[in-house]
Amino acid sequence: MSDVVLRIADLNVTFDTDSGEVPAVRGIDLEVRRGRVVALVGESGSGKSVTSLSVLGLLPATARVSGSVELADGEALRDVVSTPEEQLVDLRGRVASMVFQEPMTALNPTMTLGDQVAEAVLNHERVPRALARERAVELLRSVGIPEPERRAGQYPHELSGGQRQRVVIAVALACEPRLIVADEPTTALDVTVQAGILDLLRELVAQHDTALLLVTHNMGVVADLADEVAVMSGGRIVEHGPVEQVLLAPAHEYTRALLDAVPAAPPASTVSVGAGSVGAGSVGAASVGAAAPPAEGPGDDREIVLDLRGVSLEYRVQGRHVRAVENLDLTVRAGEMLGLVGESGSGKSTAGRACLGLLAPSEGEVLLLGTSVARARGRARRRLLADVGVVFQDPGGSLDPRRLVGESIAEPLAIHGRDGRRLSPAEKRARVRELLDAVRLPAGAERRYPHEFSGGQRQRIGLARALALRPRLLVADEPTSALDVSVQAEVLQVLRDLHAELGFGCLFISHDLGVVHELTDRVAVLRSGRLVESGATAEVFSAPRELYTAELLASVPTPDPVAQRERRAARLRLAGTGGDL
Amino acid sequence: MTGLRRFARNRLAVVGAVALAVLVLFVLVGPLVYPTEQVATDLGAANLPPGVDGHPLGTDALGYDNLGRLTVAGRVSLLVGVLAGALATVVGTLWGAVAGYVGGVVDAVMMRVVDAGIAIPAIFLLLVLSTIVRPTVGMMIVVLGLVSWLVPARLIRAEALSVRTRDYVVAARAMGATHRRTVLTHVIPNTVGTVVVNATFQVADAILLVAYISFLGMGVQPPTTDWGAMLNDGINYIYQGAWWLILPPGLAIVIVVCALNFVGDGLRDVVDVKGRTA
Amino acid sequence: MTTAIPARSGAVEAGAAAPAPVRAARGGFGRFLIRRVLQALAVILVVSVIVFALLHALPGGPARGVLGQQATPEQIAAFEAANGLDQPVVLQYLSFLGRSLTGDLGESYLLNQSVSDAIALRLPKTLLLTGLSLVVAVLVAVPAGIYQAVRRNRAVDYWLSTLAIVAYSTPTFFLGMLLILLLSQNAGLFPAAAPQGTGIAEVLAQPAGLVLPVLTGAVPIVATFSRYMRSSTLDNLGEDYVRTARAKGTAYRRVVLRHVLRNSLTPVVAMLGYYLPVMFGGALVVEQLFNYPGMGLLFWSAAQSSDFPELLGCVLVISVATVVGSLLADLLQALLDPRTRGGLR
Predict the structure, then answer these.
(1) Which parts of chain C are beta strand (E)?
(2) C9–B154: do the CB atoms touch at under 8 Å?
(3) What domains sit in chain A, N to C, each tagged with a CATH number?
(4) What is the value of pTM for the model shown?
(5) What's residue A292's pLDDT?
(6) Which among A339, A577, B209 has a CA at the least distance from the CA of C169?
(7) Which ipTM did the prediction report?
(8) Domains, chain C, ordered by start
């Protein structure tokens, strides 16, 4: 019994809003024991984040809480719900602490890192300031910040996202709490960085015997780190059990649906193949030579709809030219899906904008259907763009909030007409209805405004608009990254069906290797604006020729705890062979 | 929720709207139901306190009935304020929209002009101008409008800059939409809310500015008057305790400017709804 | 608008109407400094063009403007020849610019004194009055704004916000009159006339006389800046770092004073620079109302007697002071923010 560090009993949370009371958490029970990692998983709106905030009593003033949330403080259990704010201050950080999702904003931009860590110490211990500073440096060292003495005097903006998250973890560790609550701690990070943070958390939990309440939507992260899983949906815990049981043999139908919706990561064995070959080569990427030529299926004679030849792209920041993409070659053929993958800053979205004619290349050429889009002007340019559709990442921003959904979908028709002539209002209406039907939205949707639809529905509206003119090329820039997995699965299914039916070429830009693996025929891997390798998706993912690709693949966690253990081992082997993770 | 209901939920906005309606009625209908002599002076009945000789608010130094004067002065104040505010809004919106949408060197040059205009305190500029041109009501409108367009220009530029980078505008450009079409169907409809809200504040500020100019003795010439000029006339008798010359026009200005600010805040509540998830 | 006292942007769309923020985050402080100084110079150049244009818009042209309405045609012709007014406009502008740069702003025919001397005598007093009002205003507005943000949407916040709008809507001169009526006429606490004298020392020697002018000048600034401060503090209270600080057991009071305050002040500092022309406009009214011997009063008397060299000289000086003030406020803001300061090393 004394092992329990957190006990939640019959917790209910409702929010007072303009439209009445909205329940967020409805009567959950949960126990976390010393040294254990308990994952709380669910999609947006499931109540998992609200639960995590209630552990430290950090809910906003509009929240109404009932039930109990007890934290172990020495031998006593203290109920957070009934403890007044002045006394909660003493518990926070000392008994339990928290790591947040967004490392870019979680730290005070005008306070040095050392001071921010030291403040956590000074909040709970009567020690001289100098001593607290020394402790801060030690903490920074223990979370893997290089040169902690120097870093302690720096400000958050001087660190990368991954390092900032390490600092946030150092803050959480400062008073050696018995429980750390981590709310989506790696969601905002690139997959290779995520792997490092997960390693750090695992190590800290083992070292200090700290319990971890891990809140996440990512089943791979759960498999990598958790001992137990509680699945939340609609404010309730629908399933709770050991990680192997829940992920491999889910009992509840919601859990099964959730796991089914997760795109399968490339198989684990693939990594060891890549690792093996690298192990033999042992020198890493450089020795493998220049980027491989864009591999195409032999004898592919389908028309090339998009052709990038030696494209370099630059943009200006404060009068300085910054090169985002360098010497990029890509082709997309009719009916083919090409995945363009890379981490943040790889230049993949910039490349996408160039394909749409929004950015002129500083070198090389972007050919749409054989014509240079940068050089086309006026009517010729418009005719060219009539054959291209685009879907963006943000479902909230890509539709004009002041126009009816029907008007948005008909916009390409209004701009271009069809077959060289303007469409009558009746023809437009008919086409809009056809398109709504194609993306599985009910008739009548065209008479409503975008804010009346959910994110997934809006993304399908965007897809309908992109396909209004039956384009030959579709550029999709992270079209599902802002969506929950179940919604993502829906949108991807619609995309896949329409692609099969209409046979357009598709440039699918994504950071999500699982989605790309599931969806695309060929893949191109981008890093720092350069093409690392490209080829048939199955080949590249099963036998990467480049160390970077292998590392990237190995970093994707798979929602199978057993397989994930092997992947992790493979990744660490890779890193050991001279990877620069 | 409809715009009207959202506006109605802001109680101060409703109070402001009612106060505005009452004031407008007062200056428009007032002289009809309460006609007074406002051209010929009557020095025999100068500086009468309120209530004496059938003057509810007393008389001023030239013997004008103060209540009647308040209504005719209000006509000038409101007329100049509304038209100057409208002029400033139109000029500023066009200037800012062009600068924000075109961007680059054009934007830089246009905005330096705005910066320079803002660097010259408006009152200083207005006083210089009113020594050059004779301040009639029409002239005041033009001059005030031309001095006041700078802030809306900046505001609309910022708005246009931000709308320009929204995904739906980028998508329209990628679909091959012309600049004309993009501006007409996306940029303008999405900035119009900001423009309307700002116009309300613009009118409020113009009314204040008219009052300042008149108070400094550089406004419209007698026998035409406005609330600021009434205060300027009244200040000479402040030490004799002639509060009735000061308080009514002063409070009228405060009330109308407050009311416009409240209404503007209410309108902003309505405009801000756009794009909010239901 | 750059209007006199009304600073609309102010009470409301603070952020959006502020000068285009020159983001220095990536360029480093050196680059930022150079850009910002060049920008200020460009603005001063445009200001000089405007003033030059005004000079030429004078009735009867610059010659009559300078010599006064009583000048004979012979005098005017002689003046035009002597001052190169028969030359092309561009050359005239360049010589005007040259003279202005050397501090030669012409002769005031009202004061029988060079314009620059007249201004040099009075500008410090205006800066003193404006500075005192500003200090008083900031001391009230900053705590008020923070207090409102912490108590957001409660009765106190609601009433203080309404009070701020009322204060903002009250013309400075009307407020001044009310203060005179109440505190000087009725209560007899402070004199209604400002201290007189040529030097700052003489002005400072009569502090009681400064109370009403400073108070009158401070109220509109409080009205505007308490709103800025409130919204800036609210923005920061919603930031993630506040949650991080609370999660490590920092008391709310300390979170506000140690973390939020500094981050909220930075944008408000930049708004101060933007607010300068409004403050100078306000000073004019206050000086006129209380008969305070500063630049505003000088300008007002010049306007009464159509003393154009004096008027335009004042406009030029006050505008340059505004531009320089905004520049300093921007640089101060950049220095307060470690993200821009970083490039300094």
Answers:
(1) 107-108, 113-114
(2) yes
(3) 1-95+180-257 (3.40.50.300), 102-176 (no CATH), 268-294+302-387+471-575 (3.40.50.300)
(4) 0.83
(5) 43
(6) B209
(7) 0.82
(8) 4-344 (1.10.3720.10)
